[in-house]
């Protein structure tokens, strides 16, 4: 796992270690990173650089929150019922 997140003046965020962009709107961006999922919220968010070959993505806009969560294993309904 080798991720690096750089925030500059709350107007720009650069993520190294991104494996895919799951969703991106003007208010929220969800990025899959090597160790899980990162959710960026704010205003006027836009992708300014996308280079998944080098695992790098950059967003511009007003950054108000960054949240990290672990990647969850998909568990079937039957497995959940009969724990």
Give an overview in words.
- With 83 residues, the chain is mainly beta.
- It has a single domain (4-81), classed as Immunoglobulin-like.
- It has one helix and six strands; from the N terminus they run ββββββα.
- It has a six-stranded antiparallel beta sheet, with no helix packed on it.
- β1 and β2 form a beta hairpin.
- It is globular and about 50 Å long.
The CATH architecture term is Sandwich
Q: Identify the overall geometry.
A: globular
In sequence order, what are the helices and strands, one letter per element? EEEEEEH
The total of beta strands comes to 6
The largest sheet, given as strand count, sense and whether it forms a barrel, is: 6 strands, antiparallel
Number of domains: 1
Give the strand content.
over 45%
Low-confidence stretches: none
Q: How is the largest sheet built, in terms of strand order?
A: 1-2-6-5-4-3
Number of helices: 1
The oligomeric status of these chains comes to single chain
* pLDDT averaged over residues: 88
Give the distance, in angstroms, between the N- and C-terminal Cα atoms: 31 Å
- Based on CA atoms alone, the radius of gyration comes out at 15 Å
Name of the top-level CATH class: Mainly Beta
Blueprint (SSEs and pairs):
Layout: E1 4-8, E2 12-16, E3 18-24, E4 28-33, E5 36-51, E6 56-70, H1 77-81
Antiparallel strand pairs: 1-2, 2-6, 3-4, 4-5, 5-6
Which terms summarize this structure?
globular, 1 helix, 6-stranded antiparallel beta sheet, 83 residues, mainly beta
